[in-house]
Design a protein that fits this description.
The chain is α/β, with parallel strands linked by helices and about 475 residues long. It has helices at about 15-25, 35-45, 60-65, 80-90, 105-120, 130-135, 150-160, 180-205, 215-225, 230-240, 265-275, 280-295, 295-300, 315-350, 355-360, 375-380, 395-415, 420-435, 440-450; strands at about 5-10, 30, 50-55, 70-75, 95-100, 120-130, 140-145, 465, 475-480.
């Protein structure tokens, strides 16, 4: 029997679809799953007649593979990944490759890379985005870890990855250690922001303009033809067309307003806090899901808490255009925050991330694929040290053009009592970033008052402390010149 090009462990839907994708591109794949019935049903079902080898032990899996062996884990993040690594290491030879294609935390991938390399093997932690359909038809793939492994997996990964119009695969080496999973984490954080922003646009149209699903379908379909063109706008437009058979109501209006989450958005916010990078739009999107989850509390609170509950009285067409502008400008801010976080991480861990190339990875296959990713690539090609997307000419002009409508939407939502935390936080981020001075001077005075934390001055160098409770004017001392 001929040996397989790659092995895959974990036959949930993502794993199965990746196997079928690899096989359709000419590769022979050996598969293993802890539940043996799953192996048999896959081999006799979707994989029947294909170049897929079912194996019923890790030893059998390893024996079926060409050297250097390549084994991809598509199992639940966390302990299951560590368990399989521990079992595989003794079975593999020097130079063999273990690949984690799940949603692992980047810090775990850093640790696992060191461990696997210490055993004489190679390790790749790779983000795979695009959901079930992407896994089957072409995902965005973000590999990182042991660079020596890249030449062996590159043909497979780039072969199965999504391709865009220019034929470039949405897969490129990201960097060492946990860089690949970090980029995927940031992708998911931006995805949280994108989804929340779209939902706020929907919420305003539904409540302020009392628009029906069919009308919103038309609006989003038009938006998808312009600068907002993206996968999420496209599927949102489609969602509004689906009608429940029994009630004849739009299905979206029958779905409970309690959003789930798997943790990657939270990881993005936590890492941003650790690195001291502001990601308010992404973080507000996480908080919005947390608030949505306390449905019973909100229902009870609605009976006792009061506030505005009015509809918009102005020009509907103009307000819909303002919502579009607010969505686009806020989306830019969300991406700007994500790229600022990657910039800080690259510096912290010396990953040397290529931000323009990362933008290209997201043009196809993944959930946040969007037309303006080309513009992000151009911005970083022009200035690889760009501190923030907001100061790149294209995005500066786009946000300034949208600014009036953006402010109108946020102010109107507040007046009407409609929560738009992502729109609002994005606008506050923009206003904070464009201000040469903020209110933090008073924070420093307060900190020095109650804790002698010291401060710097704007008129001369040094570090200072003021004896705030001491009468008189000579109360400030320079602690360090």
């Amino acid at each position: 029997m001929s040996k397989a090009d790659i092995g895959l462990i974990g036959l949930a839907v993502m794993g199965e679809n990746l196997v079928l994708n690899m096989e359709s591109h000419g590769y022979t794949v050996a598969v293993y799953n802890r539940t043996h019935d799953k192996i048999t049903s896959f081999i006799q079902g979707q994989a029947k007649g294909r170049r897929v080898i079912g194996t019923y032990s890790l030893e059998e899996l390893v024996s079926c593979l060409k050297k250097p062996r390549k084994i991809m884990l598509m199992v639940k993040a966390g302990q299951p990944v560590d368990d399989f690594i521990d079992k595989l290491i003794p079975l593999l030879d020097q130079g063999d490759i273990i690949i984690d294609g799940g949603n692992s935390h980047f810090a775990d991938t850093e640790r696992r890379t060191r461990k696997v390399e210490a055993a004489g093997l190679l390790y790749i932690g790779t983000g795979v985005s695009g959901g079930e359909e992407g896994a089957l038809k072409g995902p965005s793939i973000m590999p990182g870890g042991s660079l020596q492994a890249w030449e062996y997996v590159k043909p497979i990964f780039q072969g199965i990855a999504a391709k865009v119009a220019d034929g470039v695969p949405c897969c490129q080496w990201v960097g060492p250690g946990g860089a690949g999973h970090f980029v995927k984490m940031v992708h998911n954080g931006i995805e949280y922001g994108d989804m929340q922003l779209i939902c706020e646009a929907y919420y305003i149209m539904k409540h302020a303009l009392q628009m029906k699903a069919a009308e919103m379908h038309e609006v989003f379909a038009i938006w998808n033809q312009g600068e907002l063109n993206s996968y999420l706008i496209e599927i949102t437009s489609d969602i509004f067309t689906k009608i429940d058979h029994d009630t004849q109501q739009p299905i979206v209006e029958l779905i409970l307003d309690a959003a789930g989450q798997k943790g990657t958005g939270k990881w993005t916010s936590q890492t941003a806090l650790d690195l001291g990078i502001a990601t308010p739009t992404i973080t507000e999107a996480v908080f919005a899901r947390c608030l949505s989850a306390i449905k019973e509390e909100r229902v009870a609170a609605a009976q006792v808490l009061t506030g505005p509950n009015a509809v918009y009285q102005g020009d509907r067409k103009e307000f819909i255009e303002a919502i579009r502008q607010a969505l686009y400008a806020s989306k830019i801010c969300s991406y700007a925050q994500g790229f600022a976080l990657m910039r800080a991480a690259s510096k912290e861990w010396d990953w040397k991330l290529n931000y323009g190339e990362i933008a290209l990875l997201w043009r196809g296959g993944c959930i946040i694929r969007a037309q303006f990713l080309e513009r992000i690539k151009e911005a970083f090609d022009t200035d690889p040290d760009l501190p923030n997307l907001l100061v790149a000419p294209y995005f500066k002009e786009a946000v300034e053009k949208a600014q009036s409508g953006w402010r109108h939407v946020v102010a109107t939502a507040a007046e009407l009592g409609l929560p738009v935390p992502a729109f609002s936080s994005a606008l506050a981020y923009f206003d904070s970033y464009r201000r040469a001075t903020l209110s933090a001077n008073l924070i420093q005075a307060q900190r020095d008052y109650f804790g002698a934390h010291t401060y710097q001055r704007i008129d001369k160098p040094g570090v200072y402390h003021t004896e705030w409770l001491t009468p008189g004017s000579e109360v400030t001392s320079e602690l360090q010149g």
